[in-house]
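User: Can you help me understand a structure? I only have the sequence.
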Amino acid sequence: MSFRIAQLPSGSLLQVVTTRADLSTAFRACAVLFVTVLTAMAAQVSIPLPFTPVPFTLHTLSVLLGGAALGARLGLASQVLYLAAGIAGLPVFAASPILPQGLARLLGPTGGYLMSYPFAAFITGALAERGFDRRYLTSVLAMTAGLVVIFTVGVAWMAWGAAPIGLDRALRAGLYPFIPADVLKVLLAAAVLPSAWRFLRQPSA
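Assistant: Let's start by predicting it. Here is the structure, written out as tokens:
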């Protein structure tokens, strides 16, 4: 029996897979935990930059991919769990010679980016639940929406948060240098979910 996109039920990839395979709530919980751990691992790929307190990391990939795969609510939950682990003092945030671990990281210059992750995952997941992740171009749009949330909250926090530096400096330190790399990440990540949907449409025994 083969499946076409029109024949697949609506929802995120995880929602459809768990429904078709009759998988339990425990499986969904494990999927959320997996994305949380993946985000923590992506944070460890951290390259400090001399002109900004914001390091280059692979956070964006895990947040957007996780949100798209899990859906809105579970994507949000995975990032809330990630932040809770960091606030509890676990070394899940990006390693930095100048930024502390724990709650103080959220109050520092990069706190806005971290606090944006649940919202970015929710937005990307909500669009994925509406089928945006089933075609490459709409998958790019869904992940771009999540990326816009990350940059908006991150730059706003730098500009007007706990240690405000003003909008112009925040844009130069927290947005402009990262646009090329993050656009490339989105273009690459956006291909993952459509490929997974194509696999689901393959004939099954």
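Now, to help you interpret it: The chain has ten helices and two strands. The first strand starts at residue 47 and ends at 49. Let me know which part you'd like to focus on.
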